[in-house]
Amino acid sequence: MEKQTLEHLARQINTDLQETFDSIGVTLFDFKVEFGRTAYGEILLADEI
């Protein structure tokens, strides 16, 4: 279940970033995301490079 959640979040982040970069005429080739957890166990985006 957790793997599926992370994959879904990564794909959504990819879509959002591609749309943002496309809107300013820049091609997104590669990026890295790092996930973390809150004190309550919620998964969140910790970093994007």
Please characterize this protein's 3D structure.
The protein is an alpha+beta fold and 49 residues long. The chain has one domain. Helices cover 45% and strands 22% of the residues. The chain contains 1 helix and 2 strands. A two-stranded antiparallel sheet has the order 1-2. A hairpin with a 5-residue loop joins strand 1 and strand 2. It is elongated. The mean pLDDT is 90. One of its GO terms (molecular function) is ATP binding. One of its GO terms (biological process) is 'de novo' IMP biosynthetic process. This is SAICAR synthetase/ADE2 N-terminal domain-containing protein.
Which features does this protein show?
ligase; two-stranded antiparallel sheet; ATP binding; alpha+beta; 49 residues; purine biosynthesis; SAICAR synthetase/ADE2 N-terminal domain-containing protein
